[in-house]
Amino acid sequence: MPAPVQSTRATPRRPLRAPLRMATVCVAAVSLAVTGVLVWVAWSANARANTSLLDLETRQVAATLNAALPSVQSQLDDALNVAMATRSPTIFESFVESQRSKRHDPYVSESLWVRTASGYRLLADVGSHPQLVRDHGATAFFRSLRSGTALSVRHILRGSPRRIGYAVTSPGPRGFVVYAESLLPATRLQVPASSPFGSLNYAVYLGRDERAADLIESSVATPVTTAHATAAVALGDTFLTVVATPRQQLASATSAALPWIVLGVGVALAIASAGVVEYLGRRRGSAEELSRRLEVLYSEQRTIAATLQHALLPEHLPAIDRVDIAARYLAGAEDVDIGGDWYDVVSVGSDRFVFVIGDVSGRGIRAAAVMASLRFASRGFAIEGHGPGAVIEQLAATLDFGTDGHFATVLCGLADLSRHELTLATAGHPPPLLKTTGPPRALSLAPAPPIGVLDAGVSVGSLTVRTQPGSMLLAYTDGLVERRGEPLDLAIKRLATAADRPAESTDELLDNVLAELGMDTLHDDAAAIGIRWLT
Amino acid sequence: MADVTPEGGSSLVVECREDGAIPVVRLAGELDLSSVDAAYAAIDALARSGDGGIIFDLEAVTFMDSSGIAFLLTALERFGQVRLRRPRELVRQVIAITGLEGSLPVE
Question: Looking at this predicted complex, what is its ipTM?
Answer without folding.
Answer: 0.89
